[in-house]
Write a structure and sequence with these properties.
Blueprint lengths: L2 H17 L33 H4 L3 H34 L7 H26 L9 H13 L2 H23 L6 H29 L4 H21 L3 H6 L4 H9 L2 H20 L5 H9 L4
Helix pairs in contact: 1-4, 1-7, 3-4, 3-5, 3-6, 4-7, 5-8, 6-7, 6-8, 6-11, 8-12
Bound molecules: fe (ii) ion (2 copies).
Pfam family, one: AurF
GO molecular function: oxidoreductase activity
InterPro entries: AurF/CmlI, Ferritin-like_SF, RNR-like
């Protein structure tokens, strides 16, 4: 694809953003609905504990409490990614010509991301949940990522997060059993992120043209490591500690949960397909994706 063909894609994405974007700051987004108290934080099938002996032993009220805490963890990782991607991408574009179609779209994307982060924070608050401190390893990776991630690596890890959230949130937004603020936030996010994903895919394709085999090899592995840490970061022992659940039992239930593996593989499917098509899936990367239950 030529540079002008890519530019045409970026212009179309920006036009689409003008036509269909939401005001996620509207108080209506996070307004509770009657019956919300009994609704889950996310579709229960996405809980890493769903279907395990531990899950089966819980009352429905306990399950609701669990998924409400788990969704806060998931969305907390989402916010962390959205902020990290802005730092990485804006850093790389700081001196770029602001009239470039890709740079203009990036400005729009960052505006979206800030509003998403605010929306998620409000949604979590409105269902009475809170965010938990992340694993130190994840924060360390975030620090390194923000400072050194180069084009295809930055867009690759960002795309991983966006694709995985897209699959999950398509379920959340249509499920009557999910609390209204989360359902609405998921809908807004799915619509606006579809453009971000198209943007990231195009930026990666453009950047891969003519790169050396060595660089492709290194980038492939780093995208895999980043994605692995993000996927693992969705499960945080502090969530379960706060609910009074024994972490060792939780961990062994999650580790043995085939349903959880199937859901995560399903979530990663479009991303893995993209990587494979673009030549960003080598032996080492496959091994890492298998370790993270994404392949
Ligand atoms: Fe977002
Ligand atoms: Fe995004």
């Amino acid at each position: 694809m030529t540079a002008s063909e890519s530019d045409a894609i970026f212009k179309t994405l920006l036009e689409s953003a003008k036509r269909l974007s939401f005001d996620s700051r509207s108080p209506l987004v996070c307004q509770a609905e009657p019956g919300d108290d009994e609704r889950h934080g996310m579709t229960p099938e996405w809980s890493p504990l769903f279907g395990t002996p531990m899950w089966d032993a819980m009352s429905e009220a306990e399950r609701v409490r669990l998924t409400r805490s788990e969704v806060a963890q998931f969305l907390g990782v989402g916010i962390w990614l959205e902020v990290g991607l802005q730092v990485a991408l804006l850093r790389a574009s700081h001196s770029a010509n602001p009239a470039r179609p890709d740079v203009k779209f990036l400005f729009n994307e960052c505006a979206d991301e800030n509003l998403h982060s605010l929306m998620f924070a409000n949604a979590v608050e409105s269902i009475g949940s809170k965010f938990y401190p992340r694993d130190r390893m994840l924060d360390f990776f975030g620090w390194v990522f923000r400072h050194i991630a180069w084009d295809e690596v930055a867009y690759g890890v960002v795309l991983a997060g966006e694709e995985i959230f897209d699959v999950m949130q398509r379920d959340w937004m249509t499920s009557d059993g999910v609390a209204a603020p989360i359902r609405r936030a998921a809908y807004i996010h799915v619509v606006e992120e579809s453009r971000h994903m198209a943007y990231a895919r195009q930026k990666i394709r453009d950047r891969l043209i003519g790169i050396s085999r060595f660089r492709r090899f290194v980038s492939t592995l780093i995208i895999a490591v980043g994605t692995h840490l993000v996927a693992k970061g969705l499960v945080n022992r502090r969530v379960y500690d706060a609910l009074g659940l024994d972490w060792d039992v939780v961990r062994s239930n999650i580790d043995g949960n085939e349903h959880h593996r199937i859901m995560f593989r399903r979530a990663a499917e479009p991303f893995i397909e993209f990587l494979s098509k673009e030549g960003l899936l080598n032996f080492g990367a496959r091994w890492i994706y298998r370790k993270s239950n994404l392949l």
